[in-house]
């Protein structure tokens, strides 16, 4: 690992401080509402998985405002969701979307969501919206996706007088990111001014403010379709429940992101018990995982 002294391995004791337990005075709004804009005609399942995971993480409400055909599937699995827009405390955007088709279908509505200034998770087909988003952003790329984001960033900035090229060199390939994930997570966070959660068997969380966290020991059974969509839901829910902390100090974003990765990894371990899992198993294991974390197990 690059500069391993700078990286703090996240653990249950630290994560527990970022989990919010509802109090007697709470209601669904005070607990936090997550807006979710995910899924597409081609990838509706990603929306179902992310919403399931968010609700299992313990958020006050999920407002799902993605494509209406996808909304029917999400509702069939989770009738608790609210399918109309309204105030939210955090956004999860982009899982199950592709940037090329996204603009045709959803451009205006997405722009509105990213402009609201609440903490926002940008995943998969919305990663490039980091250039337009207001407020605190967490990007959740895998290696290929980070290579694409950095290439797009380079195109934009490089055309503005070659400044980014001079400062950062040519954008990396996915193979180069895989070879040095710690380095590229940090560079991306600095270059994009966002928290970068770079997924992999070791997941790196780098904040633009210098935060550096790792989560290791993630079960490799997680290398199966849709588990990244589940992670997005967990993260979105934790951001919504911690919205007032983030409003006071945006540095809270990185530890919350690390907590989401740890919850995801521990839920995978609980669901797996050493055997294969599917993404929905991970989402379903989240409540017992959080209970065990709160109990100090
Ligand atoms: N249930 C759902 O709704 C799910 C929805 N999902 C959603 O899907 C969207 C796309 O996300 P992603 O990460 O899968 O795609 P992406 O980064 O474009 O990588 C494509 C690369 O993979 C490669 N490749 C393809 N097949 C290969 C093979 N057999 N063996 C080897 N390589 C293979 C391919 O290479 P090529 O075939 O071009 O050589 C290309 O390089 C995203 O929105 C996500 O949220 C997922 O979460 C899954 C569950
Ligand atoms: N070999 C592995 N070992 C442990 N965890 C992995 C491994 N490969 C992938 N993961 C984890 O699985 C998830 C996959 O996410 P992602 O690549 O976005 O897939 P998808 O788009 O299918 O949801 C991430 O949380 C990643 O950290």
Automatic annotation (TrEMBL):
One of its GO terms (molecular function) is NAD(P)HX epimerase activity. Keywords: ATP-binding, Lyase, NAD, NADP, Nucleotide-binding. It catalyses: (6S)-NADHX + ADP = AMP + phosphate + NADH + H(+); (6S)-NADPHX + ADP = AMP + phosphate + NADPH + H(+). Residues 11-293 form the YjeF C-terminal domain. It comes from the Bacteria. Its EC number is 4.2.1.136. (6S)-NADPHX binds at residues 46, 96, 142, 229. AMP binds at residues 199-203, 228. One of its GO terms (biological process) is metabolite repair. It is an enzyme of class 4 (lyase). Coiled coil: none annotated. The keyword NAD applies. InterPro entries: CARKD, Ribokinase-like. Its cofactor is Mg(2+). HAMAP family: NADHX_dehydratase. Belongs to the NnrD/CARKD family. Homotetramer. Catalyzes the dehydration of the S-form of NAD(P)HX at the expense of ADP, which is converted to AMP. Together with NAD(P)HX epimerase, which catalyzes the epimerization of the S- and R-forms, the enzyme allows the repair of both epimers of NAD(P)HX, a damaged form of NAD(P)H that is a result of enzymatic or heat-dependent hydration. This is ADP-dependent (S)-NAD(P)H-hydrate dehydratase. It comes from Microterricola gilva. The lineage of its organism: Bacteria, Bacillati, Actinomycetota, Actinomycetes, Micrococcales. The gene is nnrD.
């Amino acid at each position: 690992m690059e500069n391993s002294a700078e990286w703090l391995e996240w653990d249950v004791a630290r994560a527990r401080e970022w989990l919010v337990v509802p109090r007697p005075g709470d209601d669904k709004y005070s607990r936090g509402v997550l807006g979710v804009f995910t899924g597409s005609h081609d990838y509706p399942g990603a929306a179902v998985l992310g919403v399931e995971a968010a609700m299992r993480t313990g958020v006050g409400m999920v407002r799902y405002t993605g494509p209406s055909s996808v909304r029917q599937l999400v509702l069939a699995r989770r009738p608790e969701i609210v399918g109309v827009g309204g105030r939210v405390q955090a956004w999860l955007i982009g899982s199950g979307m592709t940037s090329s088709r996204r603009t045709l279908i959803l451009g205006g509505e997405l722009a509105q969501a990213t402009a609201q200034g609440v903490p926002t998770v940008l995943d998969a087909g919305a990663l490039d919206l980091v250039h337009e988003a207001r407020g605190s952003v967490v990007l959740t790329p895998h290696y290929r996706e980070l290579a694409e984001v950095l290439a797009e960033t380079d195109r934009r900035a490089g055309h503005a007088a070659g400044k980014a090229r001079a400062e950062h060199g040519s954008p990396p390939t996915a193979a180069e990111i895989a070879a040095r994930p710690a380095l590229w997570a940090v560079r991306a966070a600095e270059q994009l001014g966002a928290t970068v959660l770079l997924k992999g068997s070791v997941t790196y969380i780098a904040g633009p403010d210098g935060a550096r966290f790792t989560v290791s020991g993630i079960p490799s059974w997680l290398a199966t379709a849709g588990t990244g969509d589940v992670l997005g839901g967990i993260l979105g829910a934790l951001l919504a429940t911690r919205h007032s902390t983030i409003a006071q100090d945006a540095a809270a974003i990185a530890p919350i992101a690390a907590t989401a990765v740890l919850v995801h990894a521990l839920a995978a371990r609980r669901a797996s018990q050493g055997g294969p899992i599917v993404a929905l198993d991970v989402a379903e294991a989240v409540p017992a995982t959080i209970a065990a974390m709160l109990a100090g197990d």
